[in-house]
Structure formats: C-alpha cells, structure tokens
Amino acid sequence: KAGVTQTPRYLIKTRGQQVTLSCSPISGHRSVSWYQQTPGQGLQFLFEYFSETQRNKGNFPGRFSGRQFSNSRSEMNVSTLELGDSALYLCASSLTGLTEAFFGQGTRLTVV
Amino acid sequence: DQQVKQNSPSLSVQEGRISILNCDYTNSMFDYFLWYKKYPAEGPTFLISISSIKDKNEDGRFTVFLNKSAKHLSLHIVPSQPGDSAVYFCAASSTSGGGADGLTFGKGTHLIIQP
Description:
The complex is a heterodimer. By secondary structure, chain A is an all-beta fold. Chain A is built from no helices and 11 strands. In chain A, strands 2, 4, 5, 6, 9, 10 and 11 form a 7-stranded mixed beta sheet that branches. In chain A, strands 1-3-8-7 form a 4-stranded antiparallel beta sheet, with no helix packed on it. Chain B contains no helices and 11 strands. The radius of gyration of chain B is 14 Å and the shape is globular.
C-alpha cells in the first residue's frame, strides 16, 4: 500500500512569490491535514480537509490556503512568501481524522 | 500556551535498557494520544496510540501508558536498540471535533541509544 506522497521534496522561492505544494494521501483516506515544522515553533497545525471541505484551520494568516479534490488529493498554497515561511511542510492522511494520521516525507521550502 | 509538553529535550539510554519518554498535557478535551518517531528531513512515523478509555497500549517493544488524572503519558521502549535513536513526538487530539482539529504536538525528545 503506497504511503503519503508529497511533491516537490525541496523548493526554493523568492520573497513575494507564491507556492503550491501537493499531497496524495493513502488510498481510502479521506482526511488530509497540513502541518508546518520550524525549529522555533515545532510542528504546528495548518488546516484539515475532509471530503473536499476545510473543517478547521490553525492560527496562520490568510496567505496560507488549501483545497482538497474529489480523489482526496490536497494542495496547499502560500501567497506573498515571507522569509519566515521557510519550513518543512508536512501532510498527513487519516481515514476519518479520528484515527492515527500517517505523514508524508514533507516539502522543504526555503524562501530567500 | 503549550498544551502538550515534553520537558526533556534529550535522553540518552544504553542499548538493551528501557527508554522512557514522558509527555504532559493541559487540555482536558484531549482524548486521543499518539507517539511519533522522526528522523531529520523526514516526516514523522506513527508508532503507537492510545484512547482515553484505556490506560495502557502495547505494540511489540513499545508500550504507552496514560494517566488521565495526572494528564500524563509515557512511552516505554524495551529493549532499546540503536535504530531507536531519533526524535520522538507526543501528540494529542480531541475526537469531539470529529477529527477536524488536527494534532497538537509537543516539542519532541531526542533519544540517543548508546552502544
């Protein structure tokens, strides 16, 4: 059974640009969550999608957005990138959100 | 305000001995707890979970204990092996949100297994 796949693995962007990250969950999983990991803040919840609907969002500015498609694949978008957005972005999938979540390998975003 | 705390940033244990990693939480709504293992530049790997209706869950060398009254959980690894060296994260969630609230993570404990 294939795991959670995130693309791309690494990305370098310039301040002010926007970026889109992609996540393919485990087959059959309908809940996809996104997390940001930084050395100072640790792992922080960005948002969760279930059946194409955003059910909850963490404490992040509106520049961070996402969506989920009918096949449960999800994308995360960050607009007007800032240096502080440099982080490892992790996607996790779960059957319903009420069971254990399995993580992808992450996308390392560097903003210069 | 940190709702999940792992007070030991690092822990060194001899190979073959027991590793005990601790985690405290403050939010009474948390009723589902998980442990993850993480290597640098990789995503966390799920290890074991426990629901608040239980006080212990075992899976091979890994056992998680939950003390609800103390709002404390611990992960025991017996026996510890060199491959267990990694950062361990404790995570918690509230199922009353229908799974929408995501996981709240501690800052992690770096476990080092000494040969």
